[in-house]
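Take a minute with the sequence and fold tokens given here and flag any structure token that looks odd. Thanks in advance.
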Amino acid sequence: MEGYKTIRGFGKVEKLYVDSLFIGYAMSVNSEKEAKEFIRNVKGAHSDATHNVSAYRVREGNTLLVYYDDDGEPRGSAGRPVFKVLEYKGLENVVVVVTRYFGGTKLGYGGLVKAYSETASEALEKAGIMEIIKKEPVEIVFPYNLYSVIEKAIEKFEAEILERNFSVEVRFVVGIIPEQKDEFIKYVNEITKGRAKIREFLD
């Protein structure tokens, strides 16, 4: 799986279209089960609402699971527009629910699409969109006197230490952006004069 965009956590907005109240909820999730549970919880909290429209895009393994529901609104006017916002923004592992309290005035098909899309989009922005970058692991084994040198190299490339082991020598497993991996390995070899043993993990 390559890098992807998601949201930082939870976002909520309230918007008024004519006399209907729209409440948008956005939440980051790690599984389809969590997404369904979030939808169920929002529906439970707003059981008196006219509609609770929902959509999600969740990655499980190599499969992208997608879902949207109009919850009684005219077909294609609610759930799909919310889903399209997720798709347009390229978001994964995200669920959105837009609750509507009908005020008495019909908005029409176009008005519904606009209301649901905008409410979903603002809830997502409120939650904060972030990019998750895939990092590849690289093992570095080195003597203790190179500790500070290796740490500086890791900081320079904004790599992430995934594992640390201390024995006769120090062993790090470092996560590095794929495009920077070769340059990182070359740099570590240069600054340690080849005294650090580097191993790449094969897929």
